[in-house]
């Protein structure tokens, strides 16, 4: 398969491209953040008029996985116009072009489309009520994709892993601080379902292979608080758990509102793929093994000398 991956310097885009390149021909789309990579890179600004059309015509892919996004939630609040261009208008254009080119599409969305007020888990049938610019623009994007391209697959995700900057995932935040003996806070009233980015990459590729279309929740099968997630990382890495202080999200200095409950049901995905999704312990074991094997340094070696923070 020839695969075009947008946002190829982001946490998901880079890990996905690296994994897929082992058995497929991968072309990554990147602004100018990657210095090198073991896959072909098309350097362009996707918000420019005609940029995605030129990229897909150059790559001639069998499928596109659209990872590019403005993923910094607080930055979206500060620049809602750019967030809408990136998270809503660009996905609509990508979906339309994929229809015209008869190219399969997986569009990456987010669990944040839900306001978190429901008791229990959210299914794909639940109506999102996004709060804040990031969540609203991402929801607009996924709706636009399915409207213009019903054969596309939209995956709502939440993931962690090693990134180009070393600062893109919550797991990296805990590792970076705890490894230096620094105290951190962990939110006790924010529930989510984290999945290792390498496992998510494999699932997205399997969704393409099986020809899935429509909306899916592609997150970890276990729900937990962010505080619990930090504790699990500390235990796996042998860091002091006492360095993590339980705190409510309201006590933080974050700009954008965070949903309290982002527990997403994965029943539809696991049923349609006929697959038991990897649990947290399996993901953290691989995350720790990568740490021991120098994978974080390998990832960062692909960056330009002054890599900017990049979207997922």
Q: How would you describe the overall organization of this protein?
A:
With 312 residues, the protein is of the alpha/beta class. The protein has a domain at 2-166 and 195-221 and 264-281: 3-Layer(aba) Sandwich (Rossmann fold). 39% of the residues lie in helices and 17% in strands. It contains eleven helices and 13 strands. A seven-stranded parallel beta sheet has the order 3-2-1-4-5-6-11, sandwiched between helices. Strands 7-10 form a two-stranded parallel sheet. A two-stranded parallel sheet has the order 8-13. Strand 5 (104-110), helix 5 and strand 6 form a beta-alpha-beta unit. The longest helix has 21 residues, at 80-100. Residues 306-312 have low confidence and may be disordered.
What is the structure about, briefly put?
This protein has 312 residues and is an alpha/beta fold. Helices cover 39% and strands 17% of the residues.
- Order of strands side by side in the largest beta sheet? 3-2-1-4-5-6-11
- Helix count equals 11
Which structural class is indicated by helix and strand composition? alpha/beta
Shape: globular
Euclidean distance between termini CA atoms: 23 Å
List the uncertain runs. 306-312
Binned, the helix content reads 25-40%
CATH class of the domain at 2-166 and 195-221 and 264-281: Alpha Beta
- Major sheet characteristics: 7 strands, parallel
CATH superfamily of the domain at 2-166 and 195-221 and 264-281: NAD(P)-binding Rossmann-like Domain
Q: Which architecture of the domain at 2-166 and 195-221 and 264-281 per CATH?
A: 3-Layer(aba) Sandwich
**Radius of gyration over C-alpha positions, nearest whole angstrom:** 18 Å
The strand count comes to 13
CATH topology of the domain at 2-166 and 195-221 and 264-281: Rossmann fold
> Average pLDDT value?
95
Question: What is the H-and-E element order?
Answer: EHEEHEHHEHEEHEEEHEEHEHHH
Tell me the β content: 15-25%
């Amino acid at each position: 398969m020839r695969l075009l991956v947008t946002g190829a310097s982001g946490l998901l885009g880079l890990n996905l491209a690296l994994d897929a390149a082992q058995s497929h021909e991968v072309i990554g789309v990147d602004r100018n953040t990657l210095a090198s990579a073991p896959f072909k890179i098309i350097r362009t600004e996707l918000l420019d008029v005609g940029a995605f059309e030129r990229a897909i015509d150059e790559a001639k892919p069998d499928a596109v996985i659209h990872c590019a996004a403005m993923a910094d939630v607080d930055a979206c609040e500060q620049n809602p116009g750019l967030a809408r261009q990136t998270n809503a208008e660009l996905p609509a254009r990508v979906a339309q072009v994929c229809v015209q080119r008869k190219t399969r599409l997986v569009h990456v969305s987010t669990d944040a489309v839900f306001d978190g007020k429901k008791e229990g888990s959210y299914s794909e049938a639940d109506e999102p009520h996004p709060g804040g610019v990031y969540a609203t623009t991402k929801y607009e994007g996924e709706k636009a994709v399915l409207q213009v391209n019903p054969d596309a697959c939209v995956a709502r995700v939440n993931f962690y892993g090693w990134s180009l900057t070393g600062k893109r995932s919550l797991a990296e935040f805990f590792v970076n601080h705890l490894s230096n003996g620094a105290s951190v806070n962990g939110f006790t009233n924010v529930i989510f379902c984290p999945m290792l980015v390498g496992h998510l990459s494999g699932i997205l590729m399997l969704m393409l292979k099986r020809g899935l279309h429509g909306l899916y929740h592609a997150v970890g099968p276990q729900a937990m608080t962010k505080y619990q997630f930090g504790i699990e990382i500390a235990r796996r890495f042998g860091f002091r758990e006492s360095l993590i202080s339980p705190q409510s999200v309201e006590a933080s200095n974050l700009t954008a509102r965070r949903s309290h409950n982002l527990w997403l049901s994965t029943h539809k995905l696991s049923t349609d793929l006929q697959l038991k999704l990897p649990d947290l312990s399996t993901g953290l074991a691989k995350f720790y093994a990568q740490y021991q094997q120098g994978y974080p340094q390998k990832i960062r070696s692909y960056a330009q000398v002054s890599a900017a923070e990049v979207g997922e």
